[in-house]
Write a structure and sequence with these properties.
single chain, alpha/beta, Rossmann fold, two-stranded parallel sheet
Length: 327
């Protein structure tokens, strides 16, 4: 299999590329390096089954060429991170919607399969737990740019399913839930690497809001396993799948567990949402996936425990800070 990965220099994309190369597949990556980093792909550069281009997913002639050269496309390129989304809503909407439109249009020319990355954010303010793929989506008001990402990814899903239903392009949709692990940076508001870095430096660990909001964190290697299995599952086309773990933890508890793992003396500080982001910022109190459909379809669901996830993220941040390993 030869796989084209948009956003392949990013966090999930680079792990997927490594795994595909290791199992004997060919990989072609496109990334504009706005949030991805070439250092993530450094171990693969020069490999006979790996190639990459620096460019935008909105460049249709380039995307058309790369789609044609591969058997399947994994479309990961997107504007990500709450901080980036709040600060640059125009960039968020244009990148997510137009980029997906370009990928699907190019794939439709030769009926090439596409796996489209979506997000748990599309569930919005839904209060039915756990979230299942057929549940209604509850979006916030358009005056709050915080919901621009969720709406843009929901539109991506509708567009992908429209290409499946109308043009018979094999499109599979993955809704990722708080995927974390090595190589993820806290630059755009990703909570776990931020907590790890702050704890290792002995800085205050900043928790936004009350800290009572809860999330389920899934290991990136589990997400990659799910993606690869879905690529190999013919019946996955035209379907939406939650991809995430179901071990729920409050953000305040997460901060405490990271601090304890690091043996840090950092204080935990609560920061109001208005100060961290913008006035009127809204957040979901819980976000829990139902992964029964994923497990029925591919015989797998993310199960790596939170303690192991924290250990892997802390080790990665320690290496980035060039601190000695814990004794």
């Amino acid at each position: 299999m030869r796989v084209f990965i948009t956003g392949g220099a990013g966090f999930i994309g680079s792990h997927l590329a490594e795994r595909l190369i290791a199992r004997g597949d060919g990989v072609l990556v496109l990334d504009d390096l706005s949030t991805g980093e070439m250092s993530n792909l450094e171990p693969l550069v020069g490999h006979e089954r790996f190639d990459y281009r620096v460019g935008s997913v909105t460049d249709e002639p380039l995307v058309a060429e790369l789609v044609d050269r591969c058997d399947v496309t994994v479309h990961l390129a997107a504007a990500v991170g709450v901080k980036l989304i709040v600060e640059r809503p125009v960039h968020t909407i244009e990148t997510n919607v137009h980029g997906t439109e370009v990928v699907l249009h190019c794939a439709a020319k030769k009926q090439k399969p596409v796996l489209l990355a979506s997000t748990s954010e599309v569930y919005g303010k839904s209060s039915k737990f756990p979230f299942a793929e057929e549940d209604d989506l509850v979006m916030g008001a358009t005056v709050h740019s915080r919901w621009a990402y969720a709406c843009s990814k929901a539109l991506d899903e509708w567009l992908g399913l429209a290409y499946w239903n109308e043009k018979h392009v094999p499109v599979t949709i993955c809704r990722f839930f708080n995927t974390v692990g090595p190589r993820q940076t806290g630059r755009y508001g990703m909570v776990l690497p931020n907590f790890a870095r702050q704890a290792l430096r002995g800085e205050p660990i900043t928790v936004y809001g009350t800290g009572e909001q809860s999330r389920c964190f899934g290991h990136v290697q589990d997400a990659v396993e799910a993606v690869i299995r879905l690529l190999e599952t013919e019946g996955a086309a035209g379907e939406v799948f939650n991809v995430g773990a179901d071990e729920e933890v409050s953000i305040l508890q997460l901060a405490e567990r990271v601090r304890d793992h690091c043996g840090s003396s950092s204080k935990i500080e609560l920061v109001p949402y208005e100060k961290a982001y913008a006035k009127g910022f809204e957040d979901m109190m819980r976000r829990v996936p139902d992964c029964a459909k994923l497990e029925r379809t591919i015989g797998f669901r993310p199960r790596t425990g939170l303690d192991q996830i924290i250990a892997d993220v802390v080790a990665d941040q320690r290496a980035r800070l060039e601190l000695p390993a814990a004794g």
